[in-house]
Automatic annotation (TrEMBL):
Source organism of this protein record: Mesonia algae
Protein name: RAD3-like DEAD/DEAH box helicase
Membrane spanning stretches: none
InterPro entries in alphabetical order: DEAD/DEAH_box_helicase_dom, Helicase_ATP-bd, P-loop_NTPase
Pfam families for this protein: DEAD
Length: 206
């Protein structure tokens, strides 16, 4: 029997957690998962090895009910660079292997027109970098009308001005969704997002 907050997760997620021998939530997961499931915008800060990436994955799958729907992405995961994008893609595949969710990874090393055409074929989860995603948005390469959750992994990379500006540009083109930012520390610059897309946000720090 899974303890809270795991036991109310989708059965596909519980099956995968059990197969990975993850039966107890970390302190960070126990605090963050219920708040993310509630739909609130959230700043999450915790040290390495606290379970942040696993939390990002399972709450994304929970929000999408572990099944493919339509053609437009319903979840976006923003990462620092190509290397992080591929790591996140591989991490997601461990959890989506036995369901219908379609995970797509893009980065600035890929031609934007290729990404645009592949995304239009239908995806559920888009993993991308700030520059790549911003370019897609500027070319109307991503339909965000069905977007439910936008997560940022290790959000410290948004502090430099170029990435910070790209994030603001991206979020201005999204009508409405839930935002969850994960990092080891929430810097004052990240907190400034509260005056933009992180309005009414909550914070969890472990």
């Amino acid at each position: 029997m899974f303890p809270k907050p795991f036991k109310k997760l989708h059965s596909d997620i519980l099956y995968k957690l059990e197969s990975l021998e993850i039966t107890e939530p970390t302190p960070f997961q126990a605090e963050s998962i219920p708040v993310i499931k509630s739909g609130s915008n959230l700043y999450c800060s915790a040290p390495k090895e606290s379970g942040k990436t696993t939390t990002l994955i399972i709450t994304t799958l929970q929000r999408l009910k572990c099944e493919a729907v339509g053609t437009s992405p319903r979840a976006i995961v923003l990462v620092k660079d190509k290397e992080k994008a591929m790591e996140m893609y591989d991490a997601f595949l461990k959890y989506t292997k036995h369901n219908s969710l379609r995970v797509y990874v893009g980065h600035e090393k890929m031609h934007v027109d290729l990404q645009k055409s592949e995304i239009m074929m239908g995806i559920d989860i888009l993993i991308s970098t700030p520059k790549s995603l911003n370019n897609l948005f500027l070319l109307n390469g991503v339909n965000t009308s069905q977007l439910k959750i936008f997560s940022v992994d290790d959000a410290e990379f948004l502090v430099p001005q170029s990435a910070y500006a790209a994030m603001l540009s991206i979020t201005r083109m999204i009508r409405k969704c839930q935002y969850v930012l994960y990092s080891e520390n929430i810097s004052p610059k990240l907190k400034r997002f509260e005056s933009n897309f992180m309005e009414y946000s909550k914070s969890i720090s472990i």
